[in-house]
Design brief:
This protein has a single domain, classed as Spore Coat Polysaccharide Biosynthesis Protein SpsA, Chain A, CATH 3.90.550.10. Helices cover 28% and strands 23% of the residues. It is built from eight helices and eleven strands. The radius of gyration is 17 Å and the shape is globular.
Length: 256
Amino acid sequence: MASKRAAIILAAGKGKRMKSDLPKVLHKIGTLPMILYLLIKMSEFDFEKMIIVVGFQGELVIDKTRNLNTKGQYKLDFVWQKNQLGTGHAVMQAEEDFKDFDGTVLVAAGDVPFLTKNSIQELFNVHEKSGAVATCMSADFEDPTGYGRIIRGDEPDTMVAIVEHKDADEKILKINEINSGIFCFDSREMFKILHRVENNNAQGEYYLTDIIKLFIENGKKCAVWKVPDPFEVSGINSVEQLKEAENILKSRKKLV
């Protein structure tokens, strides 16, 4: 029997480098806000539910996304992250909505418009076949500066750590496989361990990636699947990257 599936999309951030008062995920690529490219692909899956976490100018995000046609399978729901306290904190805002859910939950940021349906499906496949509590979508970047590096285990598709760039030694810095920030989780295991995440870092935030270390320490299996085209997981964090995305859209002709 196939696992039940759901999704949490993180869309609470302002995106300071966008130099705009518009929420980052509502900046347009072509004619559509970037988050809609992702949501359109998500709408093709048989999800039990899909939650969008909103924060900065959340009413605008809700207004632009609430009428997405999901083929009658589910309706979009929204939760608020009133204070920007990190990705782990953002996911925690959806805990009440998942109290009766037992299955796989996909977590992704709303600023990855180039992610394809096939890659989302493959991440689900690897996660559900591996028996892992967490599966990370990774990618090989020519310049991985600033990204967390994937440390693989001895067994195929296993991950034993995500090491942030600032914590990496010279050997780890040579690794080009990075954490894209897109995950599949066992829902119950994820929310249970999120309560143990601490915010003792320079930003005082609760990071979703910290639960990987906690899972490993508790003997839980974590897996990894590398996306064939790293372009798919390229997030958009600045005006320059937005312009680059526009150019790529024109050259590739098709995005959704």
